[in-house]
Design goal:
single chain, about 130 residues, alpha+beta, 4 strands, elongated
């Protein structure tokens, strides 16, 4: 087909989210008391990207609830301004021991890290 397979987009989106959580939110996959479970994802494609192009991704948080987070990810081709695709992931943060949404919500340390990349939805309102 001469374009990146759709499954790779989701792999990249998941990877950039997890990389951020590891680096800026202190998530440790094997020992953190909570983890984010993806409950929804979608992707909108605007143009294709293919080998040997290099993908660059941008990540932001659109919403933080008591136990959920909505992420938005943009995928670009390195050196090209036009966005190639935009995806969204929704995670529900669950307790490792029960696998159920945390009664106390997302831990403050993780929440603080997520707020660093949260979009102010009031900025775009007139």
């Amino acid at each position: 087909y001469q374009h990146m397979n759709n499954a790779i987009y989701n792999f990249l989106y998941d990877s950039v989210i997890n990389s951020y959580l590891f680096e800026f939110c202190g998530l440790k996959p094997d020992s953190s008391p909570q983890y984010g479970m993806v409950v929804h994802s979608h992707n909108d494609y605007f143009a294709s990207i293919s080998f040997p192009a290099c993908a660059e991704l941008g990540l932001r948080v659109n919403k933080i609830g008591n136990s959920s987070v909505t992420y938005e990810i943009a995928l670009f081709e390195k050196g090209v301004d036009q966005v190639k695709s935009v995806g969204a992931f929704v995670q529900v943060w669950v307790d490792r021991e029960t696998g159920r949404p945390s009664v106390n919500g997302i831990s403050q340390h993780v929440r603080d890290g997520l707020q660093r990349i949260m979009v102010d939805n009031n900025e775009s309102k007139l």
